[in-house]
Design brief:
By secondary structure, this protein is an alpha+beta fold. It is built from 1 helix and 3 strands. It has one domain. The two termini are 13 Å apart. The relative contact order is 0.36. It comes from Allobranchiibius huperziae. This is DUF4177 domain-containing protein.
Length: 52
């Protein structure tokens, strides 16, 4: 059974692609992007398989 680790990452609108590309290179998969609870910036929710 796969176990996962998760990360939440604030996104800067003018650098969204670069931020997501960097996390993707580190093995993270984008799950969803939502507006932050305070109504400000976007937040990316990511996951990747946990390593032992």
């Amino acid at each position: 059974m796969t176990t996962w680790e998760y990360a939440t990452v604030p996104l800067i609108v003018h650098a969204t692609k670069q931020i997501l590309d960097q996390w993707g290179e580190d093995g993270w998969e984008l799950v969803q992007v939502l507006q932050s609870p305070d109504g400000g910036n976007l937040v990316a929710y990511l996951k990747r398989p946990k390593t032992a």
